[in-house]
Design a protein that fits this description.
Length: 173
């Protein structure tokens, strides 16, 4: 009814479900495409607690057009910015597993302005490209509440332009 062309399905961690919610997301993708075959669907999901089989369930049974999982920040800032149950290495594994399972497009995102240096962003971008990630988005970190990490800086448009140029040279879409 809404005549959508592209949707992003996102989810919170479902550690209350044995498969982390993978089958439910896969079913939602399948049913949505039955209702609108032209619809393109991106699934933005967590790391499924590092269970490769759950990543495969989502990719193979659901068939999203884009499999997205965010690394969030550069490796050095993982412990201070992300939940302790997450890791850069696991996130890279999840993106690789999705590719291995047949994901057509893989995508991740980085936040900047958290205390990273531009060189660290470039190194993180290269690690993502080495993991065969197709699409990368980079956005400004904004502190959601006082309980979250403070904003280190507002990134100037020129730095975003340099990162974009470097990303395109690395082969990101």
């Amino acid at each position: 009814r809404m005549d959508l062309a592209y949707v992003v399905l996102t989810m919170v961690d479902r550690d209350d479900l044995l498969d982390g919610g993978a089958a439910h997301v896969a079913q939602t993708v399948r049913r949505s495409k039955e209702l609108n075959p032209a619809l393109r669907i991106e699934t933005l999901v967590g790391d499924f607690a590092g269970r490769r089989s759950d990543v495969r369930t989502l990719v193979v049974d659901g068939g999203p057009d884009v499999f997205a999982h965010n690394v969030e920040v550069v490796p050095r800032l993982q412990r201070s910015m992300r939940d302790a149950r997450c890791s850069w290495e696991r996130s890279i594994d999840v993106l690789r597993w999705a590719r291995d399972a047949g994901a057509g497009v893989t995508k991740s995102s980085l936040m900047v302005g958290c205390g990273e240096h531009e060189e660290e962003s470039l190194e993180a971008m290269q690690k993502l490209k080495d993991a065969e990630v197709d699409v990368l988005t980079i956005g400004q970190y904004l502190r959601p509440t006082e309980k979250h990490a403070p904003l280190d800086r507002y990134v100037e448009p020129e730095e975003f332009e340099r990162l974009q140029k470097a990303g395109m040279q690395m082969g990101f879409r």
